[in-house]
Write a structure and sequence with these properties.
Length: 368
Amino acid sequence: MNPESRASDTRTFQVRFGPEKLASYDEQWANNLRLASAGTVEVTADFVRLSDSRNLEPQARRTFAMGDIANVMVTESENIVTLRTRRDQRVVYLFMGSAADLRALVSLLPRDTTPEFVEFLRQRDQYRENLAAIAPRVRVTPALITINVIVFALMALAGAGITQVNPAVHLEFGANFGPLTWQGEPWRLLTSAFIHFGVIHLALNMFALYNGGELTEELYGSARFAVVYLLAALAGSVASSWWGSARLSAGASGAVFGVYGALLAYFARWPRAIPLAMLKSVRYGAVLLCVYSLATGILLNFFGRAGQVFVDNAAHVGGLLGGAISGYLLARPFEAGARAVARPWQVAGVAALVCVILALLSARLWWR
């Protein structure tokens, strides 16, 4: 039957389409046909056609040949059906109006399952079991966000400003400033990572930390994640001073870049820690964020007016490398057995190694 023709036995279902973006990194049911909100599903013996009020994709893209449909998943508790194609990996996430509609639609669809999809489900289920056993909840990421927000509130009360910058207050709270940092106040290398220049600066960094921090903390464990974060913060501050020791710098962006550097380092060392489909999605997002942030910093620093625009890409790069190096050395398999022994000596050794490297890199700053 020609997909363009109308069959007399066509069944039409009223549905709601799932989100275009994944709600979390371990979901694979995103709607990649730009279908949104309410719509219809027409089913004949030869094809399934999907429509909404916009129909942004051509009709051919919204029409699934029956022979091309595979790996249909059903979530009966929520009346959800997920349609997929074999050939070009189109995915549509459907909320059915009732359990009766769910059963009726499923009865009309092929139930073929590919070996690759079976393996994905096995890996996903194993990952979720490991996650429940060794990383039931994250603690450090929300704690870091809370600390940053509290520090910002205290600084605002002290006169730092919500959108404007008062350098005197930032210096008083511990911003990184070479003439002070390298002349007896090295603690600024760390305290500066909890200080922000305005609410937008804070919001962007905390949003990035929230997006990447939870998964990274789950993979490393809370203690090792905290060490990686602090080492990345130090690395970012040292790199910032090394590039321009006379400027005032602060912000969690170096540490946040370190979180994403550690995430990429974990995937490099243990690529099978999470299912491949999840890995691709998360790795792509992490790389995209790093490239976008660095490119934005270069453009803003180049085109911005002097004294008004400054993005500390040196801190970004330093934090990224610090997080990647420490993360690679501290990464363990995502299995309960690998977490059975804490090995604090290993954590202390990695922290000492990174600090020695940073001390050597900053030697000229001390001497100068």
